[in-house]
């Protein structure tokens, strides 16, 4: 290929063939490798599975000295080093899981130049002894993996990463390569500025994963929806099912197993040995399903994951992209499927509000969620939306759910006004705030216990919404939240007005919504009975 000329002269192609046993570089790799081998700094954006590792591994082999790789994935270091050693590459790692003796051995190898790659956990740099150690060896390059962790705007900030800015000051002649599989333009700019990589060359690969079919549907009866997907489209396939909570992981793993689909749980609450065993079975055996929290998957390299299913809404588009990106690394057709509902929005808002961090942090999390909701509710091509989010353009793909079955839209201005009127009445006339459930019951004119207790049947809005069913109202509320026409807040997930609410109430803003497929509505209605 046209990429071969440069690397040939640098010995990179030779290393690719001889050490890694591959014939040719993938798109983008050769240019990056050439640049770093020649001593240049690089900022690399490449989707999961694109082949980032070789971009620093090969330069580490070709250049004089040891390649120092900073990675937050401590749990994977042993595996990564073992995999390299199996190829005959001399590699070691330093992190907090080792005892002093183990560490001493690796340190001695580093100083003596007896290894080509040293994986280093970022928190090691907090220890002055580590800096002294690095001074005593010869460094080929610094590779900063998962570089988005330096960004406070991103979705996975790690304070230890801020120390990495010091590398350049201390070792100005050592080339640096920062790599990430997820970064919006704003995050990319922040990575560059925090790591002093403004004058580095930026290599931005396409984020498109054409073999992944993106599908997002309303959550009605999630267990049945999942089972249907696996039985009709992915029988016998390996896949990942993501859930938000440990409890939900356990529940769904058991549910799948009860229904004849071999599924293993994975979450941080499990014993480390169980976790390791389940992970290694998933990697080695065919056709296993792993049901996991997002703790699972970072750095996992299983090429034939045929589907990634989300039973809960991811907190950000970055997270969604990263998690779905674990499907189809072999390039074969794969499914990214997500079911989400009103409760997801309420839960995540609650988590953000009660979560750690200052106000600015919570606001950022909230913006991340907004972007995720916009992706869910879009009537445009999912792929176009997704790539736009990462600053890339695309044509409608013809392969996602919205391309295959373009959703109808409907004018939901009046229903939106009814919802907002109810909120306003409760607030102004009763000085009360309620969650979606009570608002829907008031609209439907249901005399539930709370309605009677609070005399809500005397509100003028009581029973004005019998033209829609319960599930349809929940869909309306969900889409209103996604569009920012109102907000959900507080411990009880109460609905409140936003700036946009007034425009809708005054009739100055038309509200268009995506029509929910009748099949999903009917199912949800049945499940609710
Ligand atoms: P990333 O870190 O970008 O997610 P990896 O570096 O783990 O991706 O690479 C993904 C997979 O692709 C790995 O199995 C890797 O060995 C393989 N790979 C990388 N580069 C090449 C290449 N030039 N030819 C063939 N396979 C490659
Ligand atoms: Zn599409």
UniProtKB/TrEMBL annotation:
> Record keywords: Methyltransferase included?
no
EC annotation? Answer: 5.6.2.4
Q: Which residues form the Helicase ATP-binding domain?
A: 33-201
GO terms for molecular function, please?
Answer: helicase activity
Provide the coiled-coil residue spans. Answer: none
The Helicase C-terminal domain covers which part of the protein? 222-373
**Catalyses which reaction(s):** Couples ATP hydrolysis with the unwinding of duplex DNA by translocating in the 3'-5' direction
Query: Keyword set for this entry?
Result: ATP-binding, DNA damage, DNA recombination, DNA repair, DNA-binding, Helicase, Hydrolase, Isomerase, Metal-binding, Nucleotide-binding, Zinc
Q: Which cofactor does it need?
A: Mg(2+); Zn(2+)
Cytoplasm as a keyword of this entry, yes or no, is no
Name the protein family. Answer: Belongs to the helicase family. RecQ subfamily.
- The name this protein goes by in its record: DNA helicase RecQ
Species: Actinomadura yumaensis
Q: What is the lineage of its organism?
A: Bacteria, Bacillati, Actinomycetota, Actinomycetes, Streptosporangiales
